[in-house]
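Trying the structure run again after the queue cleared.
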Amino acid sequence: MATIAIIPARGGSKRLPGKNIKALGGKPLIAWTIEAALHSGCFDRVIVSTDDQAIADVAVAFGAEVPFLRPAELSGDMATSDAVIEHAVNWLEQHEALTIDTVALLQPTSPFRHAEQIKSAVALMQEKQAEGVVSVTASDVRLELCNTLPADHSLAGFINISANAAAKRTQDMRQIYELNGAIYLFKRHIVGQLAQLYAPTSKAFAYVMPLEDSVDIDTARDFAWAEFCLSTKL
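Done. Tokens:
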């Protein structure tokens, strides 16, 4: 019963071309996640799912496995994490007769998620006897100060004054959390149905990560922010 890590890394990023092998702190972005997965000691296999040979070559150089190249239909903008993970799991089961118990989805765009955090998330899953664990971070947003806007951008009724009377300062408002994209752990039967992790009947739990480790890179601005954050860590 194997526990595997899958790192999805397609080659066709439009917002930040070549981001998965773009150098951050002297090594390719994807290398940060590969090394964290390997150093955690939590996985029987660390697999990179990619459609791009250049990414595959970098992944292998840093110790990951690339047993297949992802098919074109799973490499476009519309490809979902569900479909990519399901393809990888099915491929391993069909071609290598691997019996999979638990899967980790580790996105390469979260370079500051480290091995000890992966170990802690796995330990939490075991402690809770959970079907899944998903990483989150505390958000700076306060729901009490948020709302939709009508077509004319009127602020009438934007804030519920009576509901917020007891919490006039932002620090007194409810702390909310947001997904940070760094760690997704789930049992085999969740594969292809990741939305189940958030369903009312879910047996999944949140693993809370610090904001400084929750950088998620999708754009050039995100990458510049990661470089700045890295410079402050050194």
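DSSP finds five helices and eight strands in the chain. Worth checking whether this holds up in the mutant runs.
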